[in-house]
Each structure stands twice: as structure tokens, then as C-alpha cells.
């Protein structure tokens, strides 16, 4: 009964916290709300007209939605790079950032699920994925595995931080024997969500561009580069605009994680390029289309030839110790690395897998304004959720929010 009373107090205090703030905070939330409304309007058009309102066709059936889904699975998995050193290795330098990282994982997973719903055409078809009601086809379908690991990881990333914050809200320390087993589980689960997503693509025999043994490991490398890079940028914003001060050494340690992951990701990229172009076969046509175009079709060239130089530049900047310790350079490198990997794992991976088609036909894909509107709306939803979670968590961690008996 007392816990229920504390929970009600926490909800009340949280609502009070997220509805009050500075002028900049209210402008930020108003902007996100406006973008979400635009996204909802675009989605209403898609619901009315069907997926024909998008740029997707029977030739290219996965586009902007699944591209963002694939990328955000990696962002969600990246929270483990803070969870493992904090809860498992007892590194106190990561402790300040771990709750922020887990909040980011929750927001990313919510966006993942939203992009899947948008790509399915509407929420009315979701019943097909409910075990016992729809045709779940477990364990044969990799898609059902993906549903399980994503929802399971979302549950873990909600319950562990909630327990810790709930205890801190009461002025008590969280009991390690309660949350540490869940932290250990989240480490393996984070690897699982990305590997299962990679296996989902690798298992499609008709798409040779994805039949690559490096796809799973490279998914992890790019995730552990882009995710912590985003966390660094978020931490920089938080310590600038809030009373929650993140120490320099915390950001520097996360930057080292980003650096190593970016280097491994670049090595794997070079290995993939060697495999595709040194001894090309007819299965290399998707890669040729992506990097050089085929038969005058070259819609993806500007994207990939923007991503590759940005990836190389970011990795080089991060590799040099003096440059990495300069925060202006670090933040710039993290930003361009985030953008580069977003392009690579989106337009550089999903779309060319469908081009050319099984009969050699080239049907290019360009997202429509409806797709772009829905995508921006979902990203705004993620930012909105994260802002709410972060504002509450920061209030509790700095002692501003406390349970009053």
C-alpha cells in the first residue's frame, strides 16, 4: 500500500516537473509537438490511401521506415556500452550517464515499434503478430524473434531504471542484488536484438546483397559507434542546459568507446568493399548500383558518397588523442559519424538490397513527402519521450524530486 502511495506521488511530481521549465524548454516541447502533429497528419493520409502514398513499390518494399528502424535498433543496443561498465564492471565514471543512456534506449525502441507500425500500413494489422491470436509462426520466423527481443529489451530498459529512480526518489540506495541480474541480462539481450535483426536480412536468399557473414558483426560495430556518439551529444546538451553536470572524464571514456567501434566498423566496411569489387560476380550488382550506378540509374550515389567520407573523417578525428580531447572537435566528429552511419544503415543497406530485382529490373526508390513527414513525426515522438524521461530522471538524481512523507 505504501509503495502505491509513493508511486502516485512520483507520477504527480513527474507531471509537475515536465510541465514546468524555462522558455527554451517550452519552445523545444512546442516544436516537437508541432512536428508530431504534422507526422500524424501525414500518417492519416497514408491510412486513407494505403502504402501507395509512399515511394515504396512491389519492387522496393522496404524504404525510409525500415531504414530508420534498422538504425534505431543499433541506437537502442548502444545503451549496453554504459550499462556493462557501470553495473557489471563497477566503473563509477559511467554512472552519471547510464540512466540517460537507458532513457535514450527506451525512446529509440518506441521509435522502432512506431516505424514498424507505419511500415505495416496501419495498426489494424498488428493482431497478426500477437501469439495465440495471429499467425505468430514461432520459432520458424526470424520476424517473430525480432518482435520478442525488441519488446523484451524495452521491458528491461524500463524496469531497471524505474527501480533505481523509484528508490532514489525515496532517498534510498537501490539494492544491487535486485537490478544487477537484470543488468547482466540486458548486456546479452542488447547483442541479441541487433544480431536477430541482422539475421532477419541475412536469411533472405533472394537478396544477395544481405547474404554477408559480416552483416551481424558490422551491425554491432556501427551500433556501438553511432549510439554512444548520440549519447555524447545528448550529454553535452544536458550539461549545458540543466543543473545535472556531467564530468569531462565521463564523456572522454564514452568517446574512447566510440573511437574503437568506429575503427572496427571502418575495417569491416573496407572488407565488404574488397569482397564486392575485387572479384565481382552478378551478385555484386547491388553494390555497383549503390556506389557507381547501373544503366544510368544512380539515385543513391549522393547518399553513399556523402556517408563514406564523413565516416572516414570522423574516425580519423576520433583516432588522434589530442583532437578527441578537444570537445568541439569531439562533438563535430560524433555528429558527422552519427549522420554517416544513419545513411549507411539506411539507404546504403536496405534500399540497394532490392535493386536490381530478381529478374534484373531496376526500380529506384525515392521517399515521398508523406513518408518524410511520418518519419520526422516519429523522430519527434522519440525526442519528446526522451525529454520527459530525462527531465524526471535528472530531477530525482540531483535531489530536486523527493518523496515527502
UniProtKB/TrEMBL annotation:
Domain of life: Bacteria
InterPro entries: DsrP-like, NrfD-like
Membrane-related topology note: Multi-pass membrane protein
Family membership: Belongs to the NrfD family.
UniProt-recorded name of the protein: Polysulfide reductase NrfD
Gene3D superfamilies from the UniProt entry: Formate dehydrogenase/DMSO reductase domain
Keyword annotations of the record: Cell membrane, Membrane, Transmembrane, Transmembrane helix
Keyword Methyltransferase (UniProt): no
Keyword Transmembrane helix: yes
Pfam family of the protein (one): NrfD
